[in-house]
Amino acid sequence: MFRRTWILGLAAAALLAGGRPAAGAWRAAGKVAAEVRTFPATPQFADQGQENVSPSLLVEPEARLEWASGTNRLTVRPFIRLDTHDENRTHVDLRACNWLHLGDRFSILLGLGKVYWGVTESRHLVDIINQTDVVEGIDGEDKLGQPMANLTYEASWGAVDLFYLPAFRERTFPDGGARLRGPAPIGGGASYESGAEAFHQDWAVRWSRTLGAFDVGLAHFSGTSREPRLLPEAYVSGVRLRPRYDLIEQSSIDVQWTKDAWLWKLEAMRRSGAGERFGAFVAGFERTLSHVFPGAADLGLLVEWLYDDRSDDSPPTIFENDLFVGARWALNDVAGTSILGGPIVDYRTGEVFAFMEAERRLGSRHQIEIEGRWFLHAEKGAVMDGFRRDSHMIARVSRHF
Amino acid sequence: MKGTALALALAGLLLGAVAIAQSPQEKGRAIAEEADRRDSGWHDNVSTMKMILRNQHGGESERLMRRQALETTEAGRGDKNILVFDAPTDIKGTALLTHTKVLEPDDQWLFLPALKRVKRISSVNKSGPFVGSEFAFEDLVSQEVDKYTYRWLRDEVLEGMATFVVERVPRYEHSGYARQVVWYDTQEYRIQRIDFYDRKDTPLKTGRARTSASRRGSSKRA
Q: What is the ipTM of this complex?
C-alpha cells in the first residue's frame, strides 16, 4: 500500500514537473533531529522489549519550486525515521508531493498533501483527511501524506473545499514487541469493509467562513474510516488485534469565537458506519493572561470538555467523558521558550492522562524540545490499561535549514 | 517708525499664524498624514524585512520576513497584510495574516506550517512579541494615522539623511507603549527609525528600516 501510494505521488510529480515550469529555482528547507525516548517503568507485557532508552533519528527535507509569480508550486517533502527498537517506527513516508495552483478564486492541489481542520488543543476530533502516524506520536498531530485532489473556491459567502481522495493510508502502529503498542500486538494485515480495500474512492467537502468574531467550518466526509476498529484474533502465539477499516459518513462542525483575550472553541462530529452511530465533541476555551509575570511572558489557561458517546463496537478511545485543564506558558523571549501541558481527567472512571511539551531555540538553527506523556491512572480492562506502564519522556534536538 | 511697527505687527501676525499652523501637535500629525498620503494609492505591495535583535550582552539574533500588503480605503478599517517568516529557520513558513482595524482589536490568523494549521488568535494584547521576536504584534501591523496622537519634536540629520522627528502616542488602550519616537525622511516621508518606550516610559527598543523591494506600483512605499 505504501509503495502504491508513493508511486502514485511520484508519478503525479514527475508528470507535473514534465510540464516545464518557467523561470524559478528549487528551494530547500526542512529539518533533521536526534531524539531519545525514555520509558522509566519496565514494560507491562512479557513480549515487549526491555529497553528503557530508545534513540532515534529524523530527516524531513523539503524541496519547493515556484513559478508564474508563485501561482504554481511543486512541493516534495519526504520523511524518514530511524528508530533503534521499534521496527515499525523506522519508516519512510512522503508527507507532501504535490502541485498547487492558485487562481483568482480557485485553487487546486494534486498529489500527496496534508490538511488540518479544527480549533481545539487536547483532541483533534474533526481533523479527518489525513491518516495519523501513530508511531511518530500519540497526540494525533503527526500525519501521513494523503493522496488527494483538492479544489478550493472562495466566494463572498465563504470558502468551499472539495476533496477527492483516491487512495487510503493505513494507520501506523508500534511493533508488537515495542512500547506503546497497547494491550495486545496490532497486526495481521488490515481488513476493509469495502471490496476496493485501500482504493475505495473517498470524498469530503468543507465550507468555512469568518463571520466577524466567529470562524466557522462545516464538513462532511464519506469514505474509509481513518480510525480502525481493532478486532482480536486468537493465534497459537496469543491474541493479536487486527485493524478493520469501515466505511463511514462523518459530519462535523468547528467554531471559534474570538472575544478579547478569550478564545471559545467547539469541535463536534457525528459518525455512522463504524459500529453504532455516535457523536462526540470537544468544547472549551483558551484565555490568555498577559502581564501576569514581570517581562513579556504570557500565561494561557485552557479548559476543554471532551465527550464521546461511542459504544464498544466502535474504534476505541480514551476520551469518553474527560476534562482537560491545561496551561500554556510562553516566555516570548528571543529563544521562543514555551511550555504547554496539563492533565486530561476522565471524571467518571478516574483515569488520568497528562502531557507536557516544552521548546526552546538554541542559536538560530537549532531547537530543543522536551515532551512528557503520562498514563497516571488507568481503569482495569479499559483502553488505557494497556498503556499504564508506557509513560515516557522525549528529548529532541532539531536542526532546521 | 510707523513702518517698523507695521513690520513688527506683520511679523507678529505671521509668527502667530505660524504658531497656530505649526503647533508641534499639528505639525506632527501633518507629517504623519503626509506620510500616509504619500503612502496611499499603492494598492498592494511586497517587501522583505530583516530584524536584528541585539541583547545587552552584544548577542545578535536575526529575523527575516516577507510581507505582502493590500491597501484598504474603507473608513475605520486598515490595510490587510500577511507576514511570512524565513528566519529563524524553525519558524520558517510561519505566517501572520492581519486585517487591521483602527481602534478596535485587529483580526489575526496565524498559520503554523508543521501542522498546516490556521489559528485565529487574540489580538487584544498587541504588545505581545511575535513568535519569539522582540517585535510586538502592534509594530508589524498597518500604521493608520488615527491610531496615534502626534507631536513634532525636531528636525534632525540621521546618518546623512534629513528627517523629521515626531513623537506619537498610541490611542489603543492595550498598547504596550507609552510612546514612540519616529524619524521620517523629509524627502519621501518614509519611516527610517522608531524608538519604542514601554508603558513605564523607559526606552525599550529601536526599529530601523534596512531593506526594501517593491514589485509593482508606487516606488514610494517603504
A: 0.89
